[in-house]
Amino acid sequence: MSDTGHTGRREGGRDGIRGAALGRAPVPLSVLDLVTVGAGSTAHAALRTSVEIARLAESRGYHRHWVAEHHSMPGVASSSPAVILAHLAAHTSRIRLGSGGVMLPNHAPLAVAEQFGTLEALAPGRIDLGLGRAPGTDPRTAAALRGAGRLDEAADEFPRSLSELIRFLDDDFPDGHPYARVHAVPGPVQGPAGRPPIWLLGSSGFSARLAGQLGLPFAYAHHFSAAGTLPALDLYRQSFRPSAVLDAPYAVIGVAALAADTAEQARAEVLTGALAMLRLRSGRPGLIPTPQEAAAYPYSPLEREFIEGRLVDIVHGTPDEVRSGLDDLAKRTGADELMLTANAHGGEARLRSYGLIADAYGLPVETPEAG
After folding, report:
1. How many CA atoms lie within 13 Å of 66's alpha carbon, on the beta-carbon side?
2. What is the pTM of this model?
3. N or C: which end of the chain has fewer CB within 10 A?
């Protein structure tokens, strides 16, 4: 298995994809922000916390900050990644910002090209366009988003929609194509313009293989499908063909990770996210419960088994324990970058975690710019 990215420091970011490992981190570290809404809180507070996390991440040397598209989930406030990213861009100046991801079958490719062309114009050279083929929600909500008759069709047509999106971004439909005179704006039709790099996201082999065949960077959702991580990364690397984008594979994995001052505090915090997932999988989605509610919940034996299975895949504990766990995961998977997501009830706990992990790796400390 490849250990690309582990042997030294990269000069990061020049191609808009590769990051630099800072401090004692084995690979670049990034943030996946689910903009979670805790019980007793609001979407307004969750979005404010997202800004605080992005500014902390920028000041501590995290490479990028992504937000993910979800729908009809009360505990998640990230249904509109492009809107959130525009807000984050206004409050940061250097960190890369992107979608982890936009669920392409929910949208017309032209609309996505124009949204992310606008973001690129707002924050030149800082935008990533991560794409997924899942709905980011349950089938009924997906039908409301796409139209009931398009559910299977939309997923099956992902490669075609991806190709169409790329052509809109590059403004290079061939003569005679129905869209040859349709232009995504902002975009190249207005003059020389940057273009956000495209990432494929997935939790199965489909996107891994497609990303490899197209020579694109790949992000795997280890944080909710840990069992498939190694097969997907192996498939990506085996399928990889050098392209104008990348000359070698570049794989990121999303990792559920939370550090606290004590192991007990960390477990109490991650238990809130685990209970929220249990309720979601049981058809009872809601706000992220408080640590007190999660501790007092009357788990059945089957529910306890589910919870413990979730916690095994969350790297949590003291800062040193989390650093050790992340080091081991990077070594086992050969991931080129770790994207950390802290799914817990309170914004303060998530902010504290990213700061503690940065401290554990000796990441730089910079004063955030006003914004």
Report:
1. 27
2. 0.92
3. N
